[in-house]
Design brief:
about 25% helix; about 350 residues; alpha/beta; Thrombin, subunit H; QueA-like
């Protein structure tokens, strides 16, 4: 499909630079089939049914944004995928100044050598020393805010908490599963009273989620792979929910992509551990999910293509036009939507 079919105009003042406070005070656009209504995240227990299950991503964002020097050259690195115990692929600013074998110094005695370069320009960095890389990143790294926020303000101490969900357990993401940023203890308690179940899986979100689609046609776009895991017990419980008439609602596109990667042709969710580069565009037949809770996404992005596949491109363009007109806040720190296909 032509990528320009997924374009729309977004005023820059609709981009949220801070989250709602409290988190669950965010607005939520409910889209059921072709019907839309303006709701709030706190309405979620009233909308969902007893027996439905929400599926959360328990990945934890690491401080994967690094600033350093290679000799006299300033170099910035955003880690996006682990490749072994001490090595990470990174998107590097000023990459032309870095050659294989060069050592980049990131401060606080944190150093890494450039090992090789991928065809997309990413550089494989091998971190020196014996301390766990996660500890080195805590010493030298910053939270990797999305470029549409980082270009407008600096990262600060508040982002350490704001850009982490309440479910974060497994370290390894370089971008937050932002749909779950809206959840709080009081919202979870209300969902429990309603009889809505919850499950977790792990997908370590990579910085590739923010990369623009440069191809003119979706068939020519290459997705970056991300590592994920669903254990057998969770898969069995999710299959039991659907068998009993409940709905599987993915909280975030990351949860959705892993569920769809783990499902077989009959729609049965299997255990899964490994990389996925699934690219969902209109025409895709969904097998594992019955709905999606997600924030509002970038024009011409793979994530807007995904929600268009779930609901229909005309429905989503109308929904986004409504959201813009009604002042919804967009992107990672923005408002939410609940998408329930007809």
């Amino acid at each position: 499909m032509r990528v320009d079919l997924f374009d729309f105009d977004l005023p820059t003042d609709r981009i949220a630079l801070r989250p709602a406070r409290p988190r669950d005070a965010a607005r939520m656009l409910l889209v059921e089939g072709k019907r839309m209504s303006d709701r709030g995240v706190l309405d979620l227990p009233d909308i969902l049914r007893p027996g439905d299950v929400l599926v959360f991503n328990d990945t934890r964002v690491i401080p994967a944004q690094l600033e350093g020097r290679r000799g006299e050259a300033s170099v910035g690195a955003t880690l996006h995928k682990r490749e072994g115990l001490r090595s990470w692929w990174a998107f590097v600013r000023n990459a032309k100044r870095v050659r294989d074998g060069d050592v980049i110094e990131f401060g606080n005695q944190v150093k890494a050598s450039a090992v090789s370069r991928d065809e997309d320009g990413a550089i494989l960095l091998h971190f020196h020393g014996e301390e766990p890389v996660e500890l080195l990143l805590e010493q030298a790294g910053q939270m990797p805010l999305p470029p549409y926020i980082a270009s407008k303000r600096g990262t600060d101490a508040a982002d350490r908490d704001d850009y982490q969900t309440m479910f974060a357990r497994e370290s390894g993401a370089v971008a937050a599963p932002t749909a779950a940023l809206h959840f709080t203890d009081r919202l979870i308690a209300a969902l429990d009273r309603r009889g809505v179940k919850r499950e977790t899986l792990t997908l370590h979100v990579g910085a590739g989620t923010f990369l623009p689609v440069k191809a003119d046609d979706t068939i020519d776009h290459r997705m970056h792979s991300e590592w994920g895991r669903i254990d057998q017990a969770a898969a069995d419980r999710l299959n039991a929910v659907r068998a009993s008439g409940g709905r599987v609602i993915a909280v975030g596109t990351t949860s959705l992509r892993l569920l769809e990667s783990a499902a077989d042709e009959e729609g049965t969710i299997q255990s899964f551990e490994g990389d996925t580069a699934i690219f969902i565009t209109p025409g895709y037949r969904f097998r594992a999910v019955d709905g999606l809770m997600t924030n509002f996404h970038l024009p011409k992005s793979t994530l807007f293509m995904l929600v268009s596949a779930l609901m229909g491109i005309d429905v989503m363009k109308a929904a986004y036009a409504h959201a813009i007109e009604q002042g919804y806040r967009f992107y990672s720190y923005g408002d939410s939507s609940l998408l329930l296909p007809g």
